Amino acid sequence: MLIFKWLLKYLIQKNYLLTFFSLYKLNIVDFKIKVILVEPEGPLNVGSIARLCANFEVDQLRLVSPKCDILSLDSIKMSLKGIKYLEDLNLFNSLKEAVSDCDLVLATCGRIDNSKDNSQYSLEEISNWINLSNNIENLAIVFGRETSGLTNKELLLAHRVFNINTSHKYPSLNLSHAVSIVLYELNNYSDKNIKDKTKTSFNFAPIKVIEDSFCEIEELLMKIGYISKMTSNAKISKFKKFILRAQTTEHEINILRGIIHQINWAIKNQKNN
Question: Which of 9, 177, 190, 249 is the most exposed place for a label (fewest CB within 10 A)?
Answer without folding.
Answer: 9
